Every structure is written in structure tokens, then in C-alpha cells.
């Protein structure tokens, strides 16, 4: 080891953000092997933390890191970045369980998105826990336990991509891939104070992913900064003829052009009810005030139509879509499915074909009206969540509290929007974030606005890992 | 009347094609009042011909014609053209029945497409008979009777837009508006030797139209030439925020730029089975040979995937969509619905919501594969129908013969294609035509290719009315 090389502790202390690692690799201060070894040490030291359902064997991960040639770093946008994927995404050689071990299977091929990431230089370290069948927004619905929220240990981590968000928030990987149907790629980002990028439907291949609601499912990116999220999305984006819902949409730039806040018009909800008790409303109001100070015009919009649309996901026809992929398994092994998931899926069996077609026409009308509403602004800005709960609270009332988490996320895919969730931690005592939402295809606009808000909020784009157990007071308060 | 003015007989003898009428109006040889009066006389002289379900009162139609100012002809692309609409399209003041009198209602407003046509100078003369609820491709499913096929009186006129096609084919209007879900805007065009333009889904507003399968329904244009069809479609095209399935798509030019056949690549079915006994196959082969002579490259394509897709419309999940708009009425007044329609709709009640979602994902995959298949050619060319039947034959076996009519039309909307049906009469003894099909949004390409084929076939673009009872031999043969 050369004398300029970092110690294992030093490696992790600075965070696993892309720019930092690339600079360190270029400067010879670290190698991908150093980083992966340090990451694996940290993961092993944490023991059974409910973040992982499977891990790439240490030797294999280290070999992948060792195989990277520094001479290729300019060609490999994700060179030497450790990452994880949610365990509803196929990785050849590791079981896919969707947090239901009895459902598990061993895929022969990785999902194309995993191959793309690896081809871009990223190093897979493992697969993450989730709310079973990606059905939930809270992170408590898994036989593998509840991943501890590194920001406030008593609070839920959010779901369904619970382990994937915690893996980033706890500094175990540079980024992770989740999925998002109702907010699973954004709620856990907000509740662990990281960035969650939920692309337009069809921008990223969903081949090799266990469907939740197939027509709405999106792969999503968790990262410690918007810039890192964009770099990953730029690798992932592009059409896939094997994915029926794939679309040819503009792929955002991996290196986002900066954007000035001054002069932007952002739609905001004209009214928000249901605020939590952990300072969420204050954080939102501070964020809005700072944006106005920065020259943003906030345009109050009546979002009733959007909120109504959202209710159809768990309380309408789309429950039948959620059921459609699981019907056979559910009949064969009902006991393997968590009772709360069974309860939710049971409603899907009551939905008739005619009802689905009526709902589809209705939703297409809502989409057109949402597009018209948003045509007048650069993007929509909402809180990502308006409240959060302790694990205990959630387990005591698992369905209605879950629905409340999705107030500003559940409509997004139904209305064919893209979204970027970004933390505004300096203004909140509990985890809290806002989401920039825009029409499908405007992913780059949403990312650039989110990056500008992130910059304004002074969230470190270096991806510094948070101090474990940071804000325990908030749980008590 | 000036000495240069045409006699009523002369007016109709030359056909009601757009270019002829515009030239005659400009030259002062006729006025819109002359034409409308002659048309109404001819309609009245025919008596109960099962073509009409309702007519605009004579005085009203003549007043509309008289109100047209010749000075505005350059501004009004449909100046003085008499037209009709299928009776599943709302016209203020006339009942909408969808060929089910008990279902009928009196709309307060006309469908926006009717308003557009009138604003462009067209003159509505009435509403046309159809297969009940636009469910059928044959023209025999109506309590108002079977419109007589003016080409071969014993043969079915085709449906569901039976009356609308016959109104054009019998020289009663310049053009008419039908609807097309499974081929209702193309099969009757082929069987009456006229042009049928089936635009991309969402190009023309479907507001004020009784839905068949709402996500697939298209308004369509019947005309005596492709040029006339294009002129009408150019007036109709454009987004409508009130129509959930409306899309922003390129509106074709009303004045089509000509296109040379030489050098075109047209996909054709690599195999066609089920040919009828009335010379259809010979007509198809002659058409193909002439195209090759003209320098077209015919590319045989395996259309199995497309044909399979088509079967899902009447034998799969989409029957539930057909049911979805009628469920309530059907429960209230089952006896008002024709037995054959009841039989078809009954299957829709068996379809579960989960099945619909699985079918939607499957069809999205088929759409992607169809797009990939067609990406290599300028358009797909198929027979519009491969066989036809007498009214007697059809009534004896009303469901399976109907399905056979739709072999090359039923997949079109399910796979998100547009199509233009054009007659190739010189090469056939029975009514026969071909269809140019292309991906959604390529309406102008399809129209231009169809116009070139029409020109090659020597079909008069003047819209000459056929001689009544032209080809009775073919029925016998």
C-alpha cells in the first residue's frame, strides 16, 4: 500500500458518493478493492440487520473489484461503485424471493438493468429486504425483519424498498436499485434522508423483476445525491423490447447541466392535510420560503384529482393487477404470504374485467387532466411524505397508516409522472423530503430541479454517511 | 337558374366527390342547395332502404346548404359536401340509438367531430344504420334491417358501419363517418368497393360516441377516394382533452402529397388461408403482381403474432371492455338487445380483473413486437377481407362467419396501427379491397401509399356512383 492510501475507516468516513470515489481512484488514494473490502467489513460488522436477503460472496465481489482496470474509468461511468438491488430483481446465482422465501426461485439470468450497471463498472454486493411482493410503503412487511432506520432507529425505514434505502443511508453502498409502483422508491428515501429517483414508466427495463402492478412498476435509484442518481439513471435508461411496458423516452444526461432556481414556476398543493407531529409541516414551509427567497414562483394547484387517482391503486381496480401476477402462487401456498398482504390481495379477486376497463378509461382521462394542470408549471413540488410512524405504530394499524404514507406518491405512476425525492434535512427534525414531479419523459427536468433544491438545502452532495442513531429525540417528541 | 347549371340527374351522375363538387361550385354549374336537394330526392326515392336511422329534416338540410357563402370556399375544405354519420355518434336533436331503439337518447350536443365537419362546410343529411352497439363486421345485426349492398345486392354490406358505407357507395353522400374497433370502418368499405380510413387511436375525438371498446374505438371516414378521405381526416384530427384516449399525433395533410410506388417496401402476409370463392385470391395476386410491376418490393412477413392478437378482441379480455359500457343497460333491458349481441357480451362477464391486466401486459408486448416487425417496411399491405358471404349465409352462422371477416382488421387497433382500406375493383369480380396498415401516427404515410395503389388500380377518384345491382353474377357464382 502506498503511503497516500486511505485507511479502511477513512474510506468509509467520507461516504461512498460517486465524485469522491472517482477522484480517489484517479488519485490513487484508494482502489475499488479497498472500497469493496471496507464495505463488506462494515456490512459483516453490522450482522443481522434485516437489510440483506442475500449477499454476493466476498471473494466474488472482491474479484469483480479487482478486475476493474483504472485505465477504463473514463469509459465506465459507475467505475468502482458498490451497489445493491432490491430482492424482487433477478441476479443470476442469487435467489429472488420478493421477501417470500416460499416464492423464491434461482434465476439463470440477471435482470438487464443489473447487467448494465455491472458493465458500467459498478460492483454488486447483495440483495435487499423489502415489503413482501413490493406491497407496502412502510418497511415492516417482511419475514426477514425490519431494517433499522439509520436516521431515527425507532421509526419505520419506509418501503417497500426498505433494505435498499437503508443500504444507502447507512453508507453500505454508493447506490441501490429499488422499484416503485406506489412510492416504494421515494417514501423510504424520504424516511432515511436520501435521494430517490423514480423514472418515467418504461424508461428503465423491468425485465427480470417480479411484478407488483406491471403496467405501473418502475425501477428506481437510491443515492446519496441527485447527481449520483442521475449518473445511474443515465446508465439504466433505454428501451427493451422484452419489456411490454418499455417506451422510447429521452434518457437524462448522466452529468446534469445545472439549473438556476430563480424564475422557475413550481406547482405546490394548494392545501395539505394530515401533517404528522414530527415537524414535517414546518420543514415544508421552510423549504417553500427558501424557494421563494431564491426566486421561485410557487403556484398553488388544486390536487384533488391527483389525490383521488392515487386512491385507485390500493382501493380500486389496480389491486387486481397486483393480484394478477400472484394468483396462482397464492392459491397454491396461501400460508406463505403475510396476512396483511393476503388481506390486500383478496380485494383484487372481487374486481371484474368490466370494472378494470372502466377504471382504465377513467384513469386515462385523469392523466390528460393532470397533464393539462402541469402544463402551466415547470414541475410539481410536494412533500414526499407528510408524516411518519414508529415501527410499533405501523404494526398496530398496518393498512390505513400505510395508505397515509402514500398521499403524494401513489398517484405518480397512475398519472404517468416521473419524480425525484430529495431530502431537505437541514430544515427538519425528523426525516423529511420533498418530491419534484413532472410529466413522463421530463426526467431530466425533474432531476435538475431536484439538484437545485438539494443545493439550496445544503445537503452534502458528497454522500457523507450519517451518524448512526442521529435523531432519537424525534421519536420521543 | 343559369343555362350552364346541371340538371338534378346530371348532378348525381358525376358522383359526389370533393374535387368535382368544388369545381362545379366554383364554376357556378351547381350550388350546394342543388346538390343537397338532388341527394335528398334520391334518398327519398329509395324509400325504406335500411341505410338511415334518422334524417335531418329536408328544410333544415337545405337551409344549411343555402347558408354557405361561395366566397368562403377556399377557407372551408368541405364546402357543400353532403355527409352522414353512423348512429352511434351524437347529433344534437336527432336520437342516438346505436341500433337499439330502447337504448336511444336525445343528445343535447353533437359530437365534436360533427361540429368540426359542419364548421368546415359539410352538410349533414342523416344518421346511418349499424350493427347493434357497433358489435359486428357484417351489417346484418340491426333491428332496422340490412342495408342492401349496392355492388352485389345479395351480399352482406359489411359492418358495423353498414349504413354509412352504403350511403357513400350508393352515391347518397360525399362521405360518411363510421367507427372502427375491429374493422367496422374497413370491412364495409371493402365489401362496397369504397375507401375506408381508420385513423390511429386517439387522432380523432371519440367524445359523443357510444363506446364499443373504448380504449380501441376510432372514428373512421368512408369516401369515394383516398383524397376525399384525407381531406375529411385533416378536418377531424386533433387532440380533445374530454376524450380519455385522445393523443397528440400528427394530423395528415388534407391535400396529400403524391408518392411514387417505385422503391416502396411493403410487408405482405407470407401466407393467407381461408380465401373465399368469389375471386378474392385472384384479385389479391393481381394487385401484388401490379405492385411489383410498379417497382414495389413486397416483403413477406410472418403475421402469426398479429393474427393471434386479433383473436383476443372477440375471444379474450376485450369482450369485458365491450360489456363495460353496456352492463347496466343489459341488466335493465336484456330483451332490447339482439340475441347474437347478448351471446357475445355474456362472455365478457366471465372475465376477471386480473385476467384483463394480464391481457393488457401481453398485448403491450405484442404491440412492441408488431412495431419491430413493421419497422423494416414502409407499411403493411393485406387484403381487407379474404372472403364474403350472402346475407342468408351470415344469418345462418352469425358468430363464426363474422370472425372470419375480421382476419386482417381485428388486430389493427389492438396493436395500435392505423389503416386505409382501398378498393381494387378492376381486378375482382366480387367486392374486394386491400388495406395499408402502419404504426400509429403514420396516418399520412398510409394514406399516401393507399392513394398510389388507388391510382394504379385506376379506381376513379371522381367518386362516380356505381351502377345499382352491378355484379349479381358473383352471388350466384
Explain this structure.
Two copies of one chain form a homodimer. In chain A, helix 9 links the parallel strand 7 (265-269) and strand 8 (297-301). Chain A has an eleven-stranded mixed β-sheet, sandwiched between helices. Chain A has 19 helices and eleven strands. The first copy, chain A, has 477 residues and is an alpha/beta fold. In chain A, helix 3 (32-46) runs antiparallel to helix 4 (58-67).
Q: Characteristics of this structure?
A:
homodimer; alpha/beta; 13% strand; disordered C terminus
Compose a concise summary of this entry.
Two copies of one chain form a homodimer. The first copy, chain A, is α/β, with parallel strands linked by helices and 477 residues long.
List the SSEs and their pairings.
2 copies of one chain form a homodimer.
Chain A: H1 8-13, H2 18-27, H3 32-46, E1 52-55, H4 58-67, E2 82-86, H5 112-119, E3 123-128, H6 162-169, E4 175-180, H7 187-192, E5 195-198, E6 218-223, H8 226-236, E7 265-269, H9 280-293, E8 297-301, H10 304-315, H11 318-324, H12 327-332, H13 339-348, H14 353-374, E9 379-383, H15 391-396, H16 400-405, H17 410-414, E10 417-423, E11 433-439, H18 443-457, H19 472-476
Parallel strand pairs in A: 2-3, 2-4, 7-8, 7-9
Antiparallel strand pairs in A: 1-3, 4-6, 5-6, 5-10, 9-11, 10-11
Helix pairs in contact in A: 3-4, 8-18, 10-14, 11-13
Share in β-strands of chain A: 5-15%
Low-confidence stretches of chain A are 460-477
By secondary-structure content and strand pairing, the structural class of chain A works out as alpha/beta
H/E series of chain A = HHHEHEHEHEHEEHEHEHHHHHEHHHEEHH
Number of strands of chain A: 11
C-alpha termini separation of chain A: 48 Å
**Helicity of chain A, in percent?**
25-40%
Integer average pLDDT of chain A = 93
Gyration radius of chain A, in Å? 21 Å
Number of helices of chain A: 19
> Oligomeric state of the chains?
homodimer
State the major sheet of chain A: 11 strands, mixed
**What's the shape of chain A?**
globular
For the biggest β-sheet of chain A, the strand order reads 1-3-2-4-6-5-10-11-9-7-8
Major interchain interface with per-chain residue totals: A-B, 35 and 36 residues
Amino acid at each position: 500500500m502506498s503511503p497516500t492510501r486511505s485507511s479502511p475507516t477513512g474510506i468509509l468516513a467520507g461516504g461512498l458518493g460517486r465524485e469522491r470515489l472517482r477522484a480517489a481512484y484517479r488519485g490513487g488514494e484508494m482502489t475499488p478493492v479497498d472500497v469493496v473490502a471496507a464495505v463488506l467489513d462494515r456490512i459483516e460488522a453490522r450482522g443481522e440487520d434485516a437489510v440483506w436477503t442475500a449477499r454476493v460472496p466476498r471473494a466474488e465481489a472482491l474479484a469483480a473489484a479487482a478486475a476493474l482496470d483504472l485505465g477504463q474509468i473514463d469509459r465506465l461511468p459507475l467505475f468502482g461503485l458498490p451497489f445493491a438491488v432490491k430482492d424482487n430483481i433477478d441476479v443470476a446465482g442469487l435467489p429472488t424471493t420478493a421477501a417470500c422465501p416460499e416464492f423464491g426461485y434461482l434465476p439463470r439470468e440477471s435482470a438487464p438493468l443489473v447487467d448494465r450497471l455491472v458493465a458500467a463498472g459498478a460492483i454488486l454486493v447483495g440483495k435487499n429486504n423489502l415489503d413482501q411482493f413490493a406491497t407496502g410503503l412502510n418497511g415492516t412487511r417482511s419475514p426477514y425483519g425490519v431494517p433499522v432506520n439509520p436516521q431515527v432507529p425507532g421509526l419505520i425505514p419506509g418501503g417497500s424498498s426498505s433494505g435498499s434505502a437503508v443500504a444507502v443511508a447507512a453508507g453500505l453502498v454508493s447506490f441501490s436499485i429499488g422499484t416503485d409502483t406506489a412510492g416504494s422508491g421515494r417514501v423510504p428515501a424520504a424516511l432515511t434522508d436520501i435521494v430517490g429517483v423514480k423514472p418515467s414508466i418504461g424508461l428503465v427495463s423491468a425485465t427480470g423483476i417480479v411484478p407488483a402492478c406491471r403496467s405501473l412498476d418502475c425501477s428506481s435509484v437510491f443515492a446519496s445525491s441527485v447527481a449520483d442518481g442521475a449518473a445511474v439513471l443515465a446508465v439504466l435508461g433505454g428501451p427493451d423490447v422484452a419489456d411490454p411496458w418499455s417506451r422510447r423516452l429521452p434518457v437524462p444526461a448522466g452529468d446534469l447541466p445545472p439549473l438556476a432556481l430563480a424564475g422557475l414556476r413550481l406547482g405546490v398543493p394548494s392545501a395539505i392535510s394530515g401533517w404528522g407531529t414530527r415537524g414535517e409541516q414546518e420543514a415544508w414551509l421552510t423549504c417553500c420560503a427558501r424557494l421563494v427567497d431564491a426566486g421561485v414562483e410557487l403556484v398553488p394547484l388544486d390536487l384533488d384529482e391527483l389525490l383521488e387517482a392515487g386512491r385507485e391503486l390500493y382501493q380500486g381496480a389496480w389491486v387486481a393487477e397486483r393480484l394478477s401476477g400472484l394468483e396462482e402462487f397464492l392459491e397454491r401456498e396461501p400460508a406463505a404470504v403475510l396476512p396483511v398482504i393476503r388481506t390486500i390481495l383478496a380485494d383484487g379477486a372481487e374486481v371484474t374485467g368490466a370494472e378494470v376497463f372502466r377504471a382504465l378509461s377513467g384513469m386515462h382521462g385523469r392523466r390528460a387532466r393532470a397533464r393539462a394542470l402541469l402544463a402551466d408549471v415547470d414541475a410539481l413540488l410536494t412533500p414526499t411524505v407528510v408524516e411518519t410512524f414508529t415501527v410499533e405504530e405501523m404494526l398496530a394499524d398496518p393498512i390505513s397508516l400505510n395508505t397515509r404514507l402514500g398521499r403524494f406518491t401513489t398517484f405518480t405512476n397512475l398519472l404517468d409522472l416521473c419524480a425525484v425525492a430529495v431530502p431537505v434535512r437541514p430544515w427538519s427534525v425528523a426525516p423529511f423530503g420533498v418530491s419534484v414531479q413532472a410529466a413522463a419523459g421530463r426526467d431530466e427536468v425533474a432531476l435538475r430541479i431536484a439538484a437545485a433544491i438539494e443545493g439550496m438545502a445544503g445537503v452534502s452532495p458528497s454522500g457523507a454517511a450519517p451518524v448512526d442513531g442521529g435523531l432519537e429525540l424525534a421519536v420521543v417528541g
